[in-house]
Target: Hemerythrin-like domain-containing protein
Amino acid sequence: MSTSVKSSAKNPSELKPVLEEHHHALQVCSRIREGLENDVELERIRAYMNWFQKNYLEPHFEIEEKYIFPKLGYNVRVKKALANHRRIRKLLSCGCADEKVLNLLEEELSAHIRFEERILFKEINNKKELAEIEKQHHTISFSGEDWEDQFWA
Model:
């Protein structure tokens, strides 16, 4: 799987903080897959996902919904991105440690990131709008190593 960092060369440099956050989210998806493949207790993976949602994903979604999506208008692609956010939140809110739910969560999150980077963000080409997005966006500090139970290692 290619990472968002490699694909970011095609996106404007002003979106670099968002793309770096996407790279981290793709790492989390990889960790979910590794955990499932290695039969890690599902509760451990779910606990990591709850931490990730609270400390990283919700702030990231808020930035996109507040500063990026409005720049694109309320078109069909923005509606799809918002629907993706709702589905991901719903999967995270179930609170269950079900393998099917975790698989679906990983698939939804990684597909959503690819959609934003390959399709949605390509629509932002106004330099003034890009500069405003960059100004409003504060990179969310993320380190999976902050999580004490590194089940993927």
The chain has one domain: 12-134. Confidence is low (pLDDT under 50) at residues 1-9. The chain has six helices and no strands. Residues 12-134 form one domain.
